[in-house]
Design brief:
mainly alpha, about 5% strand, two-stranded antiparallel ribbon, single chain, about 100 residues, Helix-turn-helix domain-containing protein, 5 helices
């Protein structure tokens, strides 16, 4: 085990912030800040950055500083070996090219 396992846990302040945002009596936001995305994943922001580099969670939504909660779920499902829907690839291009070839386009 490496010495960073303690850093994988969100700080108490990060947990309090995420609890305020994700309370059951409110609408859970789909676009999460990095701190909230990390808390949603149950890790610190440093660990979340590592997970991004490893491809375990997605990058921020292009042009924003927000992470899509559903995209995070999809990436974590894929990393855990759970079914992810129609395509198991993070790149839908191969499936689209195949369908275009079959259609003769």
């Amino acid at each position: 085990m490496d010495g960073d396992h303690q850093r994988d846990r969100p700080s108490p302040a990060e947990l309090r912030r995420s609890e305020r945002i994700l309370r059951a009596d409110q609408i859970a936001p789909r676009g999460l800040t990095k701190a909230n995305a990390a808390a949603y994943c149950g890790c610190s922001k440093d660990a979340f950055n590592t997970w991004i580099k490893k491809g375990l969670v997605p990058e921020a939504i292009p042009g924003t500083q927000r992470w899509d909660r559903k995209a995070i779920d999809w990436y974590l499902d894929r990393a855990s070996g759970l079914p992810t829907g129609e395509t198991a690839s993070s790149d839908p291009l191969p499936a689209w090219l195949t369908s275009e070839r079959k259609a003769g386009r």
